[in-house]
Design a protein that fits this description.
Helix content is 40%, strand content 12%. It is built from 9 helices and 9 strands. By secondary structure, the chain is an alpha/beta fold.
């Protein structure tokens, strides 16, 4: 008897669904894409292992790009949420899985020797070319402006370092995908900051203006150093020690638009 009731309920619900009529001839002007950002990652694994992790475990991404050949795999529909960002924040938005598209690049990240020194592994040229084409397509379809492309280390600087210091951000900037600080302006500001470095509170305020989640207490603690290192890893890849020096201040002033 109980089974019969279940069948009847399912039949009734199916009937209601099939009779549902929606008038879609009126379209609201006030709308845009739910996608606000595109987050770039590396997989820390080879292609086979990457596909296995991203399709058979809870972690996922919308796209995966191989090394050579640089095949683009779509693993999650853009209209659905992928589990790639985790505990994250950018420009005041939190838990960015809901508002971003995740792209994983097959790359081991780094190798670590017995002394804990990291040797970062470069990306393949064809892989980056494929990424740029994909990014342009996504940004066009979702109406995203330059700067919407960010790294996992940008949105989670306390726990993530991908896509790492060998990821070619400048190459993406040259392709029109993100703004880049003018070198002449940076050098002019650097000379002034070499004489008097801005306060830690200024660094924190400027990093926050860029989009980073950073403490605003004026203390140079580990969290603040991690955020500075994430910024440096993007805009000054030759040195990302988390130290608030004159060059970092100049880069940050240009990127954030704030002057000390």
């Amino acid at each position: 008897m109980k089974g019969l009731l279940v069948v009847l309920c399912v039949a009734l619900l199916s009937g209601c669904a099939s009779s549902l009529k929606v008038d879609r001839q009126h379209v609201a002007l006030g709308q845009d894409s739910r996608v606000q950002y595109i987050v770039v990652h590396y997989t820390s694994a080879d292609l086979s292992r990457s596909l296995d992790i991203l399709t058979r475990e809870q972690v996922s991404s919308h796209y995966l790009i191989g090394e050579s050949p640089a095949t683009i795999y779509q693993l999650v529909d853009e209209d659905r949420r992928a589990w790639h960002a985790g505990d994250s924040q950018w420009q005041g938005r939190t838990w960015l899985n809901s508002s971003s598209i995740g792209i994983e690049l097959v790359n081991q990240g780094y190798l670590e020797d017995e002394y804990g020194q990291r040797r970062w592994l470069p990306y393949k040229d064809e892989q980056i070319e494929a990424l740029i084409v994909l990014l342009k397509d996504i940004m066009l379809r979702h109406g995203l402006k330059p700067g919407a492309v960010i790294g996992h280390s940008d949105i989670a600087p306390q726990r993530k370092v991908d896509p790492g210091p060998l990821f070619p951000w400048k190459r993406l900037a040259d392709a029109g995908l993100l703004p880049w600080p003018d070198d002449t302006e940076v050098q002019a500001l650097r000379a002034g900051y070499a004489g008097e470095l801005p306060s830690v509170a200024w660094f924190q305020e400027a990093l926050s203006a860029v989009g980073y989640a950073v403490p605003l207490h004026g203390l140079l603690d580990e969290q603040t150093r991690n955020v500075i290192a994430a910024f440096q890893m993007k805009y000054r890849q030759s040195l990302y020690d988390g130290e608030p020096d004159a060059q970092t201040a100049a880069l940050l002033a240009v990127v954030s638009g704030l002057r000390s």
